[in-house]
Amino acid sequence: MRATFSAPIRLGALLGAGAFALTACGGSGSAEPSGSPAPEQNGESSSAAPEAAGELTVWVDADRADVLADAAEDFEADTGIAVNLVQQDFGEIRDQFVSQVPTGEGPDIAVGAHDWLGVLVTNGVVAPIELGDAANDFEQVTVDAWSYDGQTYGVPYSIENIALLRNTELAPEAPETFDEMIEMGEASGATYPFLVGLDPQAADPYHLYPFQMSFGAPVFGTNEDASYNPEDLQIGNEGGQEFAQWLAEQGEAGVLNTNIDGDLALENFNSGDSPFYLTGPWNVPAAQESGIDVAVDPIPAPGDSPAQPFVGVQGFFLSAQSENVVAATNFLINYIGSPEVQTALYEVGGRAPALTESFDAALAEDEIVAGFGAVGTDAVPMPSIPEMGAVWDYWGATQTAIINGEGDPVELWDRMAEDIAGALD
Amino acid sequence: MAETLTHHRRPFRRWFRETGWRHLVGAAVVLFSVFPLIYVLSASLNPAGTLITANRLFATVSLDSYIDLFNRPQQPYAAWFLNTLVIGLSASAGSVLLGALAAYAFSRMRFTGRRVGLITLVLVQMFPQLLAMVAIFLLMLGIGEIFPAIGLNSQAGLVMVYLGGALGVNTYLMYGFFNTVPQSIDEAARIDGAGHARIFFTIILPLVSPILAVVALLSLVGTLSEFVIASVLLRDPQKQTLAVGLYQFISQETSQNWSVFAAGAVLAAIIPVALFLLLQRYIVSGLVAGSVK
Amino acid sequence: MTEPTTTSGPRPPAASRKDRRRHQANRIVDGTTGWKLMLLKIIVLSILCATAVYAALVLFINDRWLIGSLVVVGAAALTWIYLQRGALPAKYLAPGLVFLLIFQIFVVLYSGYVAFTNYGTGHNSTKDHAVQAIMLQTQDRVPDSPTYPLTVTESDGEIYFALINDNGEVLIGAEEQPLEPAEGAVVDNGTITAIEGHHVLSFADLLNRQQEITNLAVPLEEDLNAGYLRTQDGQRAYLYTSRYVYDENADTLTNSATGTVYRDTGEGAFIAEDGEKLMPGWRVNVGFDNFLRAVTEDSIRGPLIYVTLWTFAFALLSVATTFILGLFLAIVFNDRRMVSRKYYRLVMILPYAFPGFLSALVWAGMMNQEFGFINNVLFGGAAIPWLTDPWLAKLSILIVNLWLGFPYMFLVCTGALQSIPDELTEAAQMDGAKPFQAFRMIKLPLLLTAIAPLLISSFAFNFNNFNLIYMLTGGGPRDVSAGVNVGSTDILISMVYKVAFVGARADYGLASAFSILIFIIVGTISVMAFRKTKALEELN
After folding, report:
1. CB C465 within 8 A of CB C492
2. Topology with regard to the membrane (chain B) (predicted)?
3. Residue-wise pLDDT tens digits, C53-106
4. What is B73-292's CATH number, 3.40.1580.10, 1.10.3720.10, 3.40.1160.10, 3.40.50.300?
């Protein structure tokens, strides 16, 4: 009996011990914040740095942090301004930036993707950066991507786009057209002639965009300066309808299969079950580790126009509430925009650099990067208007329905174009 | 010992009627519980693999992902683990204590608004937390301006936010359990001259230890998986929790590392499992049940 | 509040047990003293008060009178509670309530406040910030204008921009002082090193005065239409024209090219006569607009009934299935004759020990129509559309939620069962009741009384279980011909998410209004359910 008693009592004592004083005997105490610092410590102003003229705060994701640490050290040595790198989860940065900049807690600089610009600009949290003559040092598509409403908003550092991965053992030659690719794929005897990862609920407008482009159906028309014009919705044009029919045919033929998601596509390609795989550079290391000899080819077009994929450009941008604009601009243009940093960022991320000098060097030394880079320079920037959220939603669901034969493809596509137009108003 | 002996001597039919069928149920439940997790384990052992493998589970078995996990200076897994342990255990202990205090008041004392108060506690927790992130950020920003040590980017601050949820449905759970402890025990102690705090800490708490253990486990698991608030409050990687840190491995669509993530999740599961093992005896053989034997 | 003082729960009959307890109490009472605790109490309270006074002072200094007063009142209330003799319930409730009030009630109040504003994309901050951002984002660089290598100087505290023009002349200008030839300038190797009466700023000086420098706009010529020189880095200046002119007194923005005037019409943005809005705007109070929109929004009205029905079905069935399985398992493994039960118990909490979204992803993979484990292995290659058929997707969601949720119910039921003495059922069985009957008549009502609030709260949790829906099906499958982006597994909260966040703009105001409406629904149902359980409680 004793034994059964003792254990629970110990537990009770354990739980009680910490707070015994608080509520003991007659009760007392409260749970007000304990361990608060001595009163003289007042706010953040006490961080008196004697010599440094100030501090830059930069939000950066884990992969980029290492490289920037070196650049930050150089910057501090040169200017006396410390760079405080705050590690953030990449996917969280946009929303955190939007909500924190107005409170004054936001950073001076953050890393991000160009398609966030619409939201950032509409919220007034990002400041334009005049690249000046330096703009010519970057690949044109990267500066275009980081432009919004006539202003440039960031210093780009990497280009990211999809291309066709080819298992050279199963397919020694690059295909010219989509049909040729399927023929080659079938001739190779592999289980799947061609792979692309699709979501069972939302297909994948991003991965299927090059095919859509080849039928001459961009999502938006473009202005003179190559920026998108959201007023001019092109997705429902004749080319779009042709694309819809093509999707239905490929779905019926089993070439496009919404049950093959990203993971399955990757795994099947890595196990040598398909000669062709439409994907980005992020899946190359895994394929190579699995012993596949990979080549990167342009995307073969099913339609008459070139199969241009979307390009995503990552870069660093400046807060509209930054109080250190001079320092921040210097850091952005002279350090992040430098060939050394751009190359270092490329080496850690494996994406083609945005700075032409580094871009050319990377392309010259690595065939894989060269393959993706070649496709990327012809690619079109992903639209960055804030309305894209709704567009992706309708777009993907309709692609799924068409691929799975759930209705007349053209009707479904027209319906989608109407819905998107409605969502954009 | 004696029990196992009789166990063997029981004829099979009787054994089956009494405990045997329970093993059948157990086996089914084990399959149901564990199967999806096999995928996670398999993914953690296959460094180049994906989360869902179509054909071959355990095609490759390699501990590389586990090793990798501890060799990433930008993603300090060991620190996350420790942080989670500290934050989770403090929040859990705090929740149990605050909840038990409140449950005792509700169970043993009669005051105006008692029943309404009890229901309100549960109702408050039902508010959809769509905006919690923004609100908590602003709140902690304000607190941090006065007391930096418990504001943004402080683990103490995070624990405090978690303690905000200490009174809630768990209080109700404890309240129900407190009610089953006869009032006569309190009365007896009071006659003997014990104060209410002494009665509470030294007599009542030990008697309700099963439910304290359950609530401790529930709050710990709740804290472990909490992601939204922790990711807003803790910025410094060295201070982050497992839920926040691990998510970084897969949050970026283009550089997902499922294998390392799975390895991290497998190791992270040690915390609740260990606590359960530690508390199992309280949960299972409570004093009330035990003392009647 | 009239209630029986004897609360629910059985009274153990054993008198010997009571005696034992009394002995125990005696032992503990002996030999302890109260003064140490009293001292501790005073210390803790003084620390609390000191902290509160400090916080209040800081708040008052910063003119935050309301919050400062709340801190003072709160600390005073706590001190009063613990220093007096009575108010025993308050002494026990206060610690938890303090945290609850600060961290939970604040979230509710904040949501309530946001529901009456237009907070969201494009209305993210204050009017000052909006004006600043608009002016910043609409500085258009004059096309084909050159880069001006810049030297920044200072004279009498004022900042000057100096540069060398094409003819090699040194020009200098400042705020509202167009560029003019500078006197006594020294040029060395193409850079200006000194100007009479001026101090040339070093890079470190630039950094120390960066805000003045980046805010400075120096007119290029007397004709202001020629544009202004501005710099971002202190080393290069560019020529800009402003798309808009802000008139502070009239509170208007005027487009300098077209002359269109944009006014603050109280809607949280500058708006032209023809309705054109300049973005970003700012946060303003919009009264009941959000609530009005919440009930009239087209994209919601259509599927509302369907989604509401499914939300209720989902929440109720989730609670029912997890509870029944959890309870069943708790009973099965609550048998002391079963030696190995602790291993089963351990395995059963595993689903609970892994991150929910990871499990949801694994389940999604296992339910893949063509390659998933369930179809391939369990159903021998059948192509069952687990996640893509409107009805099967609902079933799948319930199955996965059962997997995720039963360990919780199992734990809770196991814990609660400990409070019910076995001899109650044993006695009933001796009276001739079958085991199951005995359980149903005796244990189950007791158990339900203890667990009912948890079931209610679990219902509320599942009612708002956004994560599961979002990760398993994303609300799909969707009927694309329906024209709304609401799918057949969307519950109210995931539909709200789509309406408020996925469209053209994230709309926190609308989302908050929805939160409040949903809270009213869930809250009402829960209160009604609590009423029922009260009846249940009194039965015993």
Report:
1. no
2. Multi-pass membrane protein
3. 999 998 898 888 888 899 999 999 999 988 887 788 898 999 999 999 988 888
4. 1.10.3720.10
Q: Yes or no: say if A155 and A316 are a contact pair by the CB < 8 Å rule.
A: yes
CATH T-level assignment (fold) for domain C142-242: Periplasmic binding protein-like II (2.40.430)
A110 φψ region: left (φ > 0), alpha (ψ -120 to 50), beta (else): beta
Q: Which of A36, A123, A257 sits opposite C121 (nearest CB)?
A: A123
State how far the Cα of A263 lies from the Cα of A413, in Å rounded to an integer.
27
C-beta atoms of B173 and C416 within 8 A: yes
CB A125 within 8 A of CB A97: yes
Query: For domain C297-539, which architecture applies?
Result: Orthogonal Bundle (1.10)
The two tokens of residue B183 are 């009032």
SS3 label, residue A65: helix
Instruction: Judge whether C142-242 and C297-539 match in fold.
Output: no
Chain-chain contact of A394 with C480 (C-beta, under 8 angstroms)? yes
B195–A25 CB contact, under 8 Å? yes
Domain boundaries, chain C: 33-114, 125-138+244-282, 142-242, 297-539
Q: d(Cα C514, Cα C510) in Å, to the nearest integer?
A: 6
pLDDT for C234? 86
Euclidean distance between CA atoms A72 and A77, whole angstroms = 9
Question: Is C212 in a helix, a strand, or coil?
Answer: helix
Q: pTM higher than 0.80 for the full model?
A: yes
CB spacing of A124 vs C206 below 8 angstroms = no
Give the one of C110, C347, C349 whose C-beta lies nearest to B131's C-beta. Answer: C110
Q: Does A82 touch chain B (CB under 8 A)?
A: no
Residues of C in contact with B171 (CB under 8 A): 96
The domains found in chain A, sorted by start residue, are 55-160+312-381 (3.40.190.10), 162-309+384-424 (3.40.190.10)
DSSP-based helix, strand, coil % in chain A, nearest 5: 50, 15, 35
Q: Which residue has the higher pLDDT, B83 or A390?
A: B83
Contact yes or no for A30 and C48 at CB 8 A: yes
